Amino acid sequence: MVFFFLKALVALLTIVDPIGLAPITVGLIAGLTPGERVRVITRATVIAAGVIAVFGVLGQFIFAYLGVTADAFSIAGGALLFLVAIDMLFGRPSGARETPREAREARTREDVSVFPLAIPLIAGPGAITTIILLVNQAGNQPINQALVALAAVITLAASWLSMRVSMTIQKRIGTSGTLVLSRVLGMLLAAVAIQFILNGLGSFLHTALR
Fold first, then answer.
1. Are 11 and 189 in contact (CB under 8 A)?
2. CA–CA dist 190, 58 (Å, integer)
3. H or E stretch including 52?
4. pTM, entire model
């Protein structure tokens, strides 16, 4: 139970990368007043929570309707997370979180709470993939489902706090510190991604050989 919670928490914290949100947030809300910054950050976190909750509850039904098995999604999701991990390890911007076009568009918008803060920086494809995979692994066990929800709440709270103190974080750890931490998180995410792939392959082979 504890191991499952830690796995869920590490996966979500790594893919959302609350610390990595800090320098991005600085650039997006630098021209706002302190009060406006708090409102934008809070709105973005609430919207992201809603998106994650919807996919956490309905994600499996959506894929069941499309005829996608849990094993296939586990393998595909693991592959997506691994690509994100590779980008983090080499310090490249990941298209799974925000594309160059989205980044350019974000700079021309006045309200950045929905885009790009909530989507795709917090609740991007990687986070959505991760929450669906975790809910699928939790199965019909209420305790495990509650642990996934708790991990998501902690991740969102950490994201809000990181964005809230983004100016301070950037001054304290600097660009080099942010890059180092991103690489460490990338290694953890790579391990989690490979585990998702192995779980999917193992389950598929077990079912096929029965």
1. yes
2. 26
3. helix 34-66
4. 0.70
What Rg, from alpha-carbon coordinates, does the chain have?
Answer: 17
Structure tokens given for 22: 């800090």
Give the C-alpha distances (Å, rounded to integers) separating 94 from 79, 91, 182.
14, 9, 12
137 Cβ contact list (under 8 Å, min separation 6): 4, 144, 199
User: How far apart (Å, rounded) are the C-alpha atoms in residues 20 and 24?
Assistant: 7
* 126 touches 96 (CB < 8 A): yes
Secondary structure element (H or E) that encloses residue 55, with its range: helix 34-66
Residue-wise pLDDT for 92-127, tens only, equals 655 555 556 555 555 445 578 988 789 878 998 778
Highest mean pLDDT pick, 46-50, 110-114, 161-165? 46-50
Domain that holds residue 58: 2-209
Per-residue pLDDT of 127-158, as tens digits, reads 888 999 999 889 889 999 999 999 999 999 99
**Count of structural domains within the chain:** 1
- Please report the DSSP string for 141-182 in residue order: -HHHHHHHHHHHHHHHHHHHHHHHTHHHHHHHHHHHHHHHHH
* Cα–Cα distance, 72 to 80 (Å, whole number): 12
Distance CA 94, CA 86 (A): 9
What mean pLDDT value characterizes the chain? 82
Residue among 123, 100, 105 nearest 17 (CA): 123
